[in-house]
Amino acid sequence: MTQPVRVLLLEDDPVDAELALATLTRAGFDCRSQRVDSREAFESAIAAGGWDAVIADYTLPAFTGTEALAIARARDPLLPFILISGTLGEERAIEALHAGATDYVLKQHLSRLPPALQRALAEHRARLQHFATQHALEASERRYRGIVEDQSELICRMTPEGALTFVNRAFCRYFGLAPGELVGTRYLERLPAEAHAGVREAWSSLTPAHALVEVEHRALDREGKLRWHRWSVRGLFDESGRLAEIQGVGRDVSELVDALQALRASEARIERVLRGSIDGFWDWDLGKNRVYYSPRFREQIGFAGTESFATVFSFQEFLHPDDAPRVLQALRRSVDDGQVFREEFRLRRADGTHVWFFGRGERLPSADGGAPHFVGSITEITERKRIEESLRLALERLRQLSRRVIEALENERAYLARELHDQIGQVLTAVKINTQAVGRHLAEPAHRARLEDSIEVIDAAIGQVRRLSLNLRPPQLDALGLEAALRAHLQRQAETGKLAAHFTAARLPEALDADVQTACFRVAQEALTNVLRHAQAHAVWLELGADTGALTLLVRDDGVGFDLSATGRRAATGESLGLVSMEERAALVGGSLRVASAPGAGTEVRAAFPLRRAPRASDGA
Q1: Which of 12, 153, 262, 543 could tie 37 with a disulfide, CB 3.0–4.6 Å?
Q2: pTM of the prediction?
Q3: Could you say which of 3.40.50.1370, 3.90.800.10, 3.30.565.10, 3.40.720.10 is the CATH number of the domain covering 475-620?
């Protein structure tokens, strides 16, 4: 090892200290050490800081290793701390580990010291990285919320079914409700019944190729009045092209709609309305090929004092080259076929810069029976486009950080499971074998009874270690696959809760993506844990299947059920995060989750995951 390791050595025997350091040096460690042998010297050295690890003798004349451990933990809860003793019993060793020691080594087995130190340093680095990742995730979430909360537009996010998952302050002010009263409810509850079909149709039209639609509808404001809204609705799709979430940016456009209706009735009245409007309007006489552009229209493009700009329908000359083919094609469909024109595009201003606009228009019959007119409006959306891009980037960063946190968590769980099974489990098994061997040579019944009781305690400890290892990361998941892991976990949970367990599984692909398998297992694990804790059920069913390109999971019980709305509100305040964690697990691999429950009706958890195959070595050939 080339990186120096700063070691604080608490040892009253210089010979033992030199022996420990020599063992580490032979193993390749470059130790920069300081030996102390009293409480005062140890406290002073710990206070000075800068240590990579502490190696402490368990017993000193006037000071103990456990006392030193308490001092070190008060200063640095994560600092690696290894105890060395010549007579440390198993019970005291476990107590020391529970008190915060990283590991312990017997003096007669100093060869274990280098791997113990190497493992402790690696764990310390992993924990520091985990904390740094968690801090970055929290900072990203604060930045994301800061962006959307300061906007005057109504901003919300919802599931593909329309359940609100986030609302900004402007949204709450408009509808007169707190975030906790809105999150978890249906967006369509804010709309009159006649608007539902149009909104659902707009949502269903979202595709990865056409991820943005503009929707206009009426909604009930905080006073119960019907107001016109214009929403830019963007679909967020997972890697498999499945709609994962809907994001909306909207505002009250009642005044704009009223202005368009007034335009159809009277040019004189529309002139007065247009002069005070924040949007730009046009009225194109298709028979004469002449256009009226409102003052605001010309002002937004930088031609406020240019009359010639208002002679022919010429704004296509100012379209950005990348937008012109699409916009002109949509314009021709509107003019020729009567389709409503709704497009986003960039126009070149008089100073040569390009600005984003949203244009809306339609062909209307002339009031005097002549040639029809094509009327419409433009709204500058440069700031909205910037916000949407910021939201997209922030959301992607948030998802990336979430993936890293979960990956680190799964790696840590797998590591701990292996350590529990391979190290502590084997040690306990060896202790049991040795104890049984000693028992065969005891003649007195009282001693044999005490020894048999000790063996039962060891058996209980071995069982607890096995259960902890299986809950952290069942070996079946990596060795035998998802079906075997779920079957075994269901059986264990059913035995624990005295439930009747029913398991069915369809034929699955031979190799599933590891992330998908882990996510599916964790969702099932959380659902079964909830059954044991809250459901008061008599039976539980787990079904695993593959349908239309998706891996499906169903966990249901015959328990007492619960109020989904109340649980959603508690989740919004951070009180109940079980369902949120399952939803996030599924979403991070491109899946979805739906929960159905009601008091007295049991609970049903359905999840779907993309049916991706695990990569093979031959795939890269």
Answers
A1: 12
A2: 0.36
A3: 3.30.565.10
